């Protein structure tokens, strides 16, 4: 079901929106997160703390279909060549509107994470998200990884900490064809989530934050401590 609920931001990543506002630290958001793509004008993009980004996702969030299926696409993109390590802190904020009946929905889901797209072939994508899901009165948390390419797609999920409503840290490491995803509750102690071979990806990818939801109220995700560095192997002793 989750796949059906995901935002598919599938307009080719070439159209750029109007300049985003400056972050609190004085930088433009584009200096940290890259250029804003414009497939979904219903989302709002705001500064969050020093050099952070808040994506505000409205209640109505369209799903677009293409010949290779559905996946999550970044809201803003930076082009990265070669091997890298990306880390980010994510904070979910969901406040139901008064008088809205959540019970009318089968599930309430909010999710945010990182997605990237092959710079030369937009049909090759990868995404990893931290999700909070509510069924009845209980919130649960999980991670979801999804790959899409010309031949189809695959994915995997994992439960566990960080707890629903708490900040989550994601770390994605690319080393050649291998992509490793990890999560953490404090940004210090990391737990491996998935390690996949991505032989469909070229040497350059467009990377950025993603956020989606299936609720009856506005949802926002804050991305802070966002850092992308080249992967440098430590010398063997």
CATH topology: Jelly Rolls
Query: What is the chain-wise order of helices and strands?
Result: HHEEEEEEEEEEEEEE
Residue share in β-strands:
over 45%
**Distance N to C terminus:** 48 Å
Question: Can you describe what's shown?
Answer:
The structure is a single chain. The chain is mainly beta and 237 residues long. It has a single domain (2-230), classed as Jelly Rolls. It is built from two helices and 14 strands; from the N terminus they run ααββββββββββββββ. It has helices at residues 2-5, 29-33, and strands spanning 35-36, 44-47, 53-57, 76-81, 84-94, 108-118, 125-135, 138-149, 152-159, 168-175, 178-184, 191-197, 204-213, 219-230. Strands 1-4-13-6-7-8-9 form a seven-stranded antiparallel β-sheet. A seven-stranded antiparallel β-sheet has the order 2-3-14-5-10-11-12. The longest helix is centred in the N-terminal third of the chain and has 5 residues, at 29-33. The protein is globular and about 45 Å long.
Concise summary:
With 237 residues, the protein is mainly beta.
Give a quick set of tags describing it.
14 strands; disordered N terminus; globular; 237 residues; seven-stranded antiparallel sheet; 2 helices; Jelly Rolls
Give a topology summary.
Layout: H1 2-5, H2 29-33, E1 35-36, E2 44-47, E3 53-57, E4 76-81, E5 84-94, E6 108-118, E7 125-135, E8 138-149, E9 152-159, E10 168-175, E11 178-184, E12 191-197, E13 204-213, E14 219-230
Antiparallel strand pairs: 1-4, 2-3, 3-14, 4-13, 5-10, 5-14, 6-7, 6-13, 7-8, 8-9, 10-11, 11-12
């Amino acid at each position: 079901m989750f796949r059906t609920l995901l935002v598919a931001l599938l307009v080719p990543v070439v159209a750029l929106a109007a300049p985003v506002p400056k972050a609190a630290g004085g930088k433009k958001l584009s200096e940290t997160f890259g250029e804003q793509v414009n497939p979904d004008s219903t989302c709002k993009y705001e500064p969050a703390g020093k050099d952070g980004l808040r994506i505000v996702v409205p209640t109505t969030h369209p799903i677009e279909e293409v010949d290779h299926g559905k996946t999550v696409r970044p809201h803003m993109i930076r082009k990265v060549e070669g091997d890298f390590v990306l880390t980010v802190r994510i904070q979910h904020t969901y406040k139901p509107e008064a008088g809205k009946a959540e019970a009318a929905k089968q599930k309430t889901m909010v999710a945010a994470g990182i997605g990237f797209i092959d710079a030369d072939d937009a049909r090759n994508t990868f995404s990893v998200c931290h999700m909070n899901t509510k069924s009845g009165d209980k919130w649960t948390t999980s991670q979801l990884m999804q790959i899409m390419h010309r031949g189809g797609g695959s994915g995997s999920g994992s439960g566990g900490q960080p707890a629903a409503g708490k900040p989550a840290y994601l770390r994605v490491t690319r080393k050649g064809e291998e992509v490793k995803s990890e999560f953490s509750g404090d940004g210090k102690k990391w737990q491996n989530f998935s390690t996949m071979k991505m032989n469909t990806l070229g040497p350059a990818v467009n990377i950025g934050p993603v956020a989606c939801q299936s609720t009856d109220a506005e949802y926002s995700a804050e991305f802070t401590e966002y850092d992308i560095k080249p992967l440098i192997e430590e010398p063997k002793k």
